[in-house]
Structures are given as structure tokens and as C-alpha cells.
Amino acid sequence: MNLLPQDVLVMLKLAVSPPPEWSYDRLAYQLGMSPSMAYSAVKRSTRAALFDPMHKRPRNEALIEFLIHGVKYAFPPDIGAIVTGVPTAFVSPEMQDSAPTDLVGEYYVWPYPNGEHRGVSLSPLYRSVPEIARYDAAMHTALGLLDSIRIGREPEQKLAEQLLGEMLG
To answer: Superkingdom of the source (predicted)?
Structure first.
């Protein structure tokens, strides 16, 4: 059993902005995946001790630990050319508001043809991430903080870890 990037996406969604009385169908619709993919993500996350099936929610302590210490190694991002897309990492909403300007490095975006910003291409954790970020501010923030951990230098990582911990804690 290996965790997949969409498992992280599902756990983040359930941790930061769960649909009221969530179902696999509703979760899948909001994340741009099939219900069977959402179901499988929850099953894998349960086996990895990231999800509590009794309470039907993520185990936040374990999830935070995995997001901070594991995701950057399990799912390293691809960095590419300058493209149009949706802001992430150091220029995502939370990091822009919280980071001192000397911490903010390159302007990174998830590639998205209808995006309004240009920057260095950063592969999203899952293909639907740019679309999710456009309508779910909490997910945009959480995924941007996660990207700051995935690609940042130590000061950016520490700030993103703190902010993500506060968001999920």
C-alpha cells in the first residue's frame, strides 16, 4: 500500500474545509475526481493512520506530521518554465500576507490556462488543484503552504509549517 498524491488532497480537504455531512460523491465532485478515487484515498489514508474511520475525519496530528516531514520526499514537485497559472508557494494568499518580503523567492504558479498570473511552473499535487484553488480559499491556502514546505528554503519552510499547523491544529 502506497499513499498517492490525491490521498493528501482528500485529507487536506477533510481537515480544512469539509463538506457538511460529507459523502464520497460530494467530496469527489469538489476535488475533481471520481467517487471511487475518493473512497480509495480514504481507505489508504486509514491504513496509513492519517484518517480516523470512527469519527470520519483526519487524524490531524498525524496528518500535520506527514505534511511537514513526508510530503516533500514522497511527492517532490517538478519545476518548469514560465507559464500562466494560479499562484502557489510563497505567493499563495497566506504566505503573501505573513511572509517577510525577504523570504519570498520566485513567483510560482500551478499551470492553468485560465490563470491570471505568470510565474515559474510548479507541478500541483494533483491535476485538479488549480481549479480547486479558484473556488476554495481554505484549500488554496493549505496547498500553497504545503508547496512552500515542498520547495522552500528553511525560513520559508518553518513559516509554512507554523501556519499550516495553526490551520489544521
So the answer is: Bacteria
Tens of pLDDT, residue by residue over 35-61, are 999 999 999 999 999 999 999 999 999
Q: How far apart are CA 31 and CA 148, in angstroms?
A: 21
Radius of gyration for the chain, computed over Cα atoms and rounded to the nearest angstrom = 15
Amino acid at 23: S
**Residue 152 vs residues 28, 65, 86, 90, 145: alpha-carbon distances, Å:** 30, 17, 18, 8, 10
Query: The whole model's pTM is what?
Result: 0.91
Question: How far apart are the C-alpha atoms of 18 and 53, rounded to whole Å?
Answer: 15
What is the rounded average pLDDT of the residues 139-167? 92
Using alpha carbons, select from 129, 158, 123 the residue that is nearest to residue 142.
Answer: 129
Helix residue ranges, H only, the chain = 5-16, 24-31, 35-47, 60-69, 71-74, 93-98, 129-135, 137-151, 154-168
Amino acid identity, position 134: R
